Amino acid sequence: MNASHDQPDTPDPTPDALLAARPHLARHALDGLLLEGVPLAAIARDLGTPTWVYGAGTIRARYRALAAALAAARLPAHVHFAVKANDRLAVLRLLGSAGAGADVVSGGELLRARAAGIPPARIVFSGVGKTAEELRLALSQGIAQINVESAEELAMLSVIAAGMGRVAPVALRVNPDVDAGTHAKISTGRARDKFGIPYAGAAALYAHAAGLPGIAPVGLALHIGSQIRSLAPFRAAYGRIAALVRDLRAAGQAVRLVDCGGGLGIPYRDEPVPSPEGLAAVIAEAFGGLDVGVLLEPGRWLVGPAGVLLAAVILVKRDGGSRFVVLDAAMNDLARPAIYDAWHGIVPVGAADLAAPLSPADVVGPVCESSDTFARDRLLPPLAPGALVAILEAGAYGSVMSSTYNARPLAAEALVEDGRWAPIRPRQELAAQWRDETVPNWLE
Ligand SMILES: *Cc1c(COP(=O)(O)O)cnc(C)c1O
User: With contact defined as beta carbons under 8 Å apart, do 282 and 258 qualify?
Assistant: First the structure.
């Protein structure tokens, strides 16, 4: 996929411009960059780097803004946070206590959501390949809804549920065959993507489901992709699903709810994105007159802007005319630039660096891959070894996608709120990486 999708042909926003558009970040003349009032340098001093830092106030405010937009559009809607975007217990607890449910895509995420205190009645299970064991777990926990993605999965779930003497509340995930206009690797709603039940066969499968033992079809679900930056694909997809609701009802089926999925985009490079009010209006336009309950499964939109990846400069390498700023964070920590050609803002943390003149630099990590590059030709201050930077919009699909490639430990994580902060996960102890490994005795 052409990288230009994420990197439009306009000059990169400067650190000043990025900060001006992000009210949760502020600069202090002595303490440098603050996240929700807390100096990021203080967190780095205590926890070291790289460290993920999330603003609880920002997450809460975003949840409230989305819930308010849905309420203002008179939608009987409930928000289920897509746990895969950020599955830390502290993040799940704070969203759960704000009123959110959880959209999970594995047994592990289901148990994480439960461990964070989210009740089963507010959990929805999505995903194209749930194992028999995961389906049994979902049924034994009594979660609200299983989004079934194929006729094969429906048959499997029917056998399992009937065998357990349970009835599974099922929404059929329909593939509306709409191009979300997003990066190919995060598009899910085209006919050639692996997700969902083909639109043309969905009505027949719904009727079939209604007759299966252990299955109670309750509605339809869709999710067309992630980081969607215009309302048009949502409008097209929701229109198709609304038509399917009408067809099903005309054929005598009960359809109680529509799960509208996630996908709402956020500004990384200060590109325009739809507002929650805009999305609510599109949902209301499609489903407002249908007397259906509405579910939403946002992940990135709720948590992405709230997080930063705090990193320190190891050294600055000068090569001819180029300047390479080598960070102690790498693609194993934040994988999005390497996987999706994603653009992330990078701003200095130190008070002096925040005021220093800018010149272009490539910002890279120490991993032995050329794709371990966070930014090219980015206007940044001198950034001496030891200087701190914050990589922005790292709250979603950040730490959850981390690996220990190059035997690098998983980074520490912290949560900030109301001027205070607390660690929420320690940096992984190096020996923990091999503690459970064994060497076969014939090698001894
Ligand atoms: C990933 C995913 C989401 C969340 O997507 P975002 O773009 O983070 O909002 C919602 N629903 C399903 C089924 C998903 O797979």
Answer: no
The Cα–Cα gap between 113 and 247 comes to: 35
25 lines ligand 1 (CB under 6 A): no
Q: How far away, in angstroms, is 296 Cα from ligand 1 center?
A: 9
Find tokens 């996608």 and name the residue.
Answer: 401
Asked if 330 and 21 touch (Cβ cutoff 8 Å), the reply is no
Report the atom number in ligand 1 closest to the C-alpha of 186.
7
Question: Which amino acid makes up residue 346?
Answer: I
Atom of ligand 1 nearest to the CA of 228: 7
The pLDDT value recorded for residue 319 is 82
Q: Please name the residues in contact with 389: beta carbons below 8 A apart, sequence gap of 6 or more.
A: 310, 311, 312, 313, 325, 327, 346, 347, 348, 349, 363, 380, 383
**Ligand 1 mean position, distance from CA 186 (Å):** 9
The yes-or-no verdict on residue 312 having pLDDT over 60 is yes
Q: How many residues does the chain have?
A: 444
Q: How far is the CA of 297 from the centre of ligand 1 (A)?
A: 6
Residue 44: the pLDDT is 98
Top CATH class, 15-55+304-433:
mainly beta
CA distances 181 to 4, 144, 277, 358, Å, are 13, 31, 20, 34
Q: How far apart are CA 90 and CA 98, in angstroms?
A: 12
* Cβ 79 under 6 angstroms from ligand 1: no
Q: Is the CB of 196 under 6 A from ligand 1?
A: no
Active site residues: 368
**Is-same-fold flag (15-55+304-433; 56-302)?**
no
Going from N- to C-terminal start, the domains of the chain cover 15-55+304-433, 56-302
Evaluate: CB of 173 within 6 angstroms of ligand 1.
Answer: no
pLDDT tens digits, one per residue of 91-135? 999 999 999 999 999 999 999 999 999 999 999 999 999 999 999
Give the whole-angstrom CA distance, residue 32 versus residue 38: 10
Q: How far is the CA of 385 from the centre of ligand 1 (A)?
A: 38
Determine the pLDDT at residue 190.
76
Separation between Cα atoms, residue 417 and residue 50, nearest integer Å: 20
Q: What is the CA radius of gyration of the chain?
A: 23
First CA to last CA across the chain, in angstroms? 48
CATH number at 56-302? 3.20.20.10
Cα separation, 408 vs 429, whole angstroms? 10
